[in-house]
Structure formats: C-alpha cells, structure tokens
C-alpha cells in the first residue's frame, strides 16, 4: 500500500510538471497484458501538429545504484513499447500519430522532488533490438 501511494505521488508530481511544460493528459495508468504505461500524453510541437507521448515515471529517494533513470532496463523498455503498440491498436484515433517515449525521473523528497525529464529517452527500435 505504501509503495502504491508513493508511486501515485510521483506520478502526480510528474503530471503537474509535464502539464506546466504544455503536454496534455490523454490516459493515466493504461494497462494491458504486456505491461503498464504511467502516462499517455499529447505534445504539440512546432514541427508537428501532435505527438503521442508515452511516459514512464520513476522515483528513487536516493541516487544509489544509478537512481531512477538506471531502473528503466531493456526489459522495461520492451514492455513499454509493446504496451504503446497495444494502446494505439485499442485507440484507433491515435494509430497514425508519431510517438515518443519519455522518462520522468524523480529523486529527493516527493514534497519537493528533483525532476529530470528525458524527452525521447529511447525509441521503439532500440527497445526491441538490443
């Protein structure tokens, strides 16, 4: 229960941060048999009308063992890309949108976290070919 509450608080902080940066929430905690995506968002870039952004939120109070970013392993990236494909299959209105995989890594306290947003942290190709 405590772990779920911490995860929820980390997602809340990441969502607030991304919304302030101009992204819009489409779906929170999308799950399917291949995994879960913490946040599915829409980013309007100057180059494209819209980009579907799949966000993995990671929280580590300390930077031991590489911190939150190091915890997004090859296996996790593969699950995320498969879950993203499933999301696009189920939500046909987003099937043709270009997509991006971001990681929001939080550390420190959840009341005032240090936030590191890596837009385009990995690609679907790099997740499946390593």
**Cα separation of the termini:** 34 Å
CATH fold category name: Trna Endonuclease, Chain: A, domain 1
Number of strands: 5
Strand order of the largest sheet: 1-2-3-4-5
The number of helices is: 4
Mean pLDDT figure: 86
Query: How can the largest sheet be summarized?
Result: 5 strands, mixed
Domain unit count: 1
Strand content: 35-45%
Topology:
Blueprint: H1 2-20, E1 24-32, E2 35-43, E3 51-60, H2 67-70, H3 74-90, E4 99-107, E5 114-122, H4 124-128
Parallel strand pairs: 3-4
Antiparallel strand pairs: 1-2, 2-3, 4-5
Protein architecture, described:
The protein has 130 residues and is of the alpha+beta class. The protein has one domain (2-128): 3-Layer(aba) Sandwich (Trna Endonuclease, Chain: A, domain 1), CATH 3.40.1350.10. It is 35% helix and 35% strand. It has a five-stranded mixed beta sheet. The radius of gyration is 14 Å and the shape is globular.
Keyphrases for this structure?
130 residues, alpha+beta, Trna Endonuclease, Chain: A, domain 1, five-stranded mixed β-sheet, 35% strand
Quick structural summary:
The protein is built from four helices and five strands; from the N terminus they run H-E-E-E-H-H-E-E-H.
């Amino acid at each position: 229960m405590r772990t779920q509450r911490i995860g929820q608080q980390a997602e809340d902080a990441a969502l607030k941060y991304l919304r302030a940066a101009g992204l819009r929430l489409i779906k929170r905690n999308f799950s399917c048999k291949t995994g879960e995506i913490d946040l599915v968002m829409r980013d309007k870039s100057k180059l494209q009308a819209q980009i579907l952004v799949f966000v993995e939120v990671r929280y580590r109070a300390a930077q031991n063992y590489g911190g939150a970013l190091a915890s997004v392993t090859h296996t996790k990236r593969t699950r995320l890309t498969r879950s993203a494909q499933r999301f696009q299959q189920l939500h046909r209105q987003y099937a043709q949108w270009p997509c991006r995989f971001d990681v929001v890594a939080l550390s420190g306290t959840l009341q005032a976290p240090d936030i590191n947003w890596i837009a385009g942290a990995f690609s679907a190709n790099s997740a499946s070919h390593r």
